[in-house]
Every structure is written in C-alpha cells, then in structure tokens.
Amino acid sequence: MVLHRMARSGIRLGTLVERAAARHPANVLVLDHDLDVAPHLGRRTTVAEVADLVADLASRLWAAGVRPGDRVVVHKSNSLDITLLAFAAARAGAVPVLLSAQLDGDTVLRLLRRAERPFLVTDQDKLDRELPPPVFEEAEEVLVVRGSYPRAIGLESLAGAERIAPVATAPHRPALITHTSGTTGVPKLAVHTGVTQQIRYLLQVSALAPVVPRRETIAIHASFVHSRMISVLAIALLRGLPMLVLADEDPERAAEHFARMRPGIVEAHPNSFMAWEAMADDPRRPLANVKLFSSTFDALHPRTVHRMLGASRRRAPLFGQMYGQTETGPVVCRGFTRRRSRSADGRCVGFPFVGTTAVRVVGRDGRPPSARTPGFIEVRSKGHFVTYLGEQERHDGQLSADGWWRTGDVGYRTRWGCVHLLDREVDVIEEFGSTLDAEDRLLTGVTDLTEVVIVRGADGLAVPVVCTKDDRPLDEAAWRAAAAALPPMAPPVHWREDELPKTATMKIKRFELARILAERQSDAA
C-alpha cells in the first residue's frame, strides 16, 4: 500500500521539528506552562524557535557524553520539554526512553535497570523528593535540566556547546521507548521503531485530513511520554497547525485558554473530556469553534461525546474515536455526530484500517463471542511495536504463532464487523456482564456523576466507586432508577475524584482501586 511505502523512511524524530520549521517557521506554539529547559521562551513561541531549542539540547546531550545507540531516560516534572528532550536525544542518535512524571521512585529505578545503564535526564525536585539514591549507580550519567546537583551534570552548564549535525538512524532500528499504562502492576517498556511510529502517524493523518481539510488551531492535552503525543505533534507541526499544548487539565483553566484561542481541533484523553463536560455550559463557549474532537486510548462514555458535540457551534462537528494500545498504535476508529443518541451503545469502538490493521475475537471456553459471552480481542497492526525491553518472553507470550496480538481486552464483533470493547480481561466480573457498559448507563442516568468505576469486591460482588460534581451527596433516587436495569451491585462507595489512582494517560488503575477499597473495608470491619 501507499501508506506502507511512505513509512519506509521512518518518522525521523531528531529532525521532525527542523523539517516543520522549514515549512512553517512562524507557526505558533502556545503553552499553559513554562519549559523547564528554556523558561526564557515563555508561553508563546514559534516552531522555528522550538527547532533551535531541540538542536541546542541535542548538542548539550552530546557534550554530556550521549552517543548514537545510547538510551536516554527522561523522567522529570510534567512539561512539554519531556517530548522536546526526546526529539533532542533522537537528534544525537540516541533512543529516548520516556517515563511518566507520575511514576514513583522505586518503579523508575526498576525501569532504569531494565534500560541497562542509560543516561537519565531529570530535575532537582525528582531527585530531592522521589528518586532513590541508587539511580546514580544505575545510570551512565544523571543530568538535571536546571541548576546543579551533586554527582549530576547540569544541562544549563553546557549551554553554548558546539552544534552537532543530526545523526541518521536506520528506520527499522529502535527509535523510541515508552511505557505501558501499568494499570495492573509495574509498566512494561515498549520499543518502537521509526517505521512503526511513522505508520501510526500516517494512520492518524489519513483519518484527520478528510474531516479537517483546512488549517485549524489544535489544542492538545495528552501524556508527554506517550507515543500518541509524538503522532499528534507530528501532525500539527508538519501541517502547520497553530498549537495550544496543555499540561493542566483543570476545566476552568483549560476553558480560559480555549475561549481565547478558539481551537478547531481538540485532542485529549477520555478522562480529560469527562472532566471538561462543564465547558458545555460555560457562557464563554470555549468549545464553540471545535470541528473535531479526537481521542485514542479507550472508548468514551456516550454522555461525554453528546456534551462535547452539543457545545460546538460548527455546522457538522465530529467526535473521532480510536481504539488501540501502546503496543499496537490505533487499531480501529469511528466517528460520531450529533445524531448519536445519549443512550447509544458506548462500547462500539469502530472498524479496522483496511490493509493496515485487523481484528479477530477468539471465544473463551469454546463459546462463540457475543455481547453475553465476550471473547479475547486480538489484533494485527503494521504499527506493532518491536518488543518489551528486557522482557522478550513476555512479548512472545502475547503473540500467537500466526502473528495475532492478544490485547488483554474482551469483547465481540457485530455482523457488520464493528468491534465492541466490553472489559479488560482482568476486570471481568463473572455473571455481571460488561462493567464498562454499566458505567456508561449509570453516567447517562445520573447527571451529577463525574466518574463511576465498577470493580470486583472482596466477596466477588460488583462494587461501584462514584465521584460527583463538587463532591455533592449522590442523588440516591436517580441512582436507584439507573441501576434498576443492571445486575446486582453493592451500595455505591463515594470517593473524591483526586483519590482515584490513575495512570499517565489518566486511566483508572482498577486493580489498584480494588486493592485500596478492600483494605479500607477490612480496616472498617
């Protein structure tokens, strides 16, 4: 296919911003935060200035000893400069390894060991508060982005280093390492090549271009350590789209930026869109100009899709949803319009990309997959990652002899081929049905809910953990009405939303939530 031929050169992370600057040097990048590596740039800059910064950072990394083929772990406070440092490491021929700022110090130490003496780029706050002292023994060098620190190299001290030419990396060689969500334990390190990243980028461009053929401002709130951030930035940079990049998902602050910049495209995590539902009622109409809402990672609740589309004043806005994994990239996609009912099936995630991705559903216990008896979702993707770093056997264990990757999700396909995602395999509560579908129904029926997560209780009964607007008491009458058509559940447990354990992409850590819930119930007994 043409797409695969286009992917042969790889995404070339090291020169991505430079190539974008050659096309659109004055294109604007607006941030809601300062860059730790370059606070002097402020919160409004140009692509040409960002390209110069990436080249400067690459030269500093080279002066610190980074060489082609080295691994450079970036683990610092949350900021777009995490992604820019990845571009800089790639420009020096190294392989960036991106670790979320939300990971605890012990987990980071374990991942550092798996990366086998990489360079570590971090900051003083992480070293003072979170990272254990052994990181200095596990890293080739520790570099701090600002100031100085004992036993570390300060990147600021290397300012003015002689500029290096970009180092070309073979397209089928490792180009980027990101980690999985870690919802059930220590994250795995997924190795991507230039080609696999380019295929993911091209898939998303092919889905975007027909919907938004002209130049629009794009607002982005995505994890700076996720491969999705690489793809969406590449789209914005190479197409010359003015960019608003948010580190903070706070609805009020996000609304202020949206009201000022009037984005035509909004890219965010599903949970961020849920948090932004309040924008639909904002008198400033911050979402009025949005032509395309875009999300990957997971299916969105129908209520959230309905609220977002209803807030747009564009003639025919679209909510584009992709389903995939860190390991596979986007696998299926589907668009939703205002015609979609609030009570529509939220488990429908879409159709594969013809010629590039494929999906099959394998029955469990010999039963054919259906809504009542979901099967294992398995996929093939041209954008499939290479391996889990240091865990080849783990990778091979999820890959069948004929090349199908078991996602760990369960669901089924309709007679038309649409993929329905019902649950994570580890979250299935037997005889309950889809917990995700039940959550959709509860969110639609109880307007004050901002989040509901159904987990397995210690006695095997489904336990709904609920969060409400402004932590108001749950509307029990509305709850009973919405839950009446669902299988039996324990009484809802009311938590504050900031208590919920989340991943870097804002997914709820259901396994961790169930563990915490069991501990609290045990202590109360």
From TrEMBL:
Gene3D superfamilies: N-terminal domain of ligase-like. Residues 18-389 form the AMP-dependent synthetase/ligase domain. Pfam families: AMP-binding (PF00501). It comes from the Bacteria. This is AMP-binding protein. It comes from Streptomyces luteireticuli.
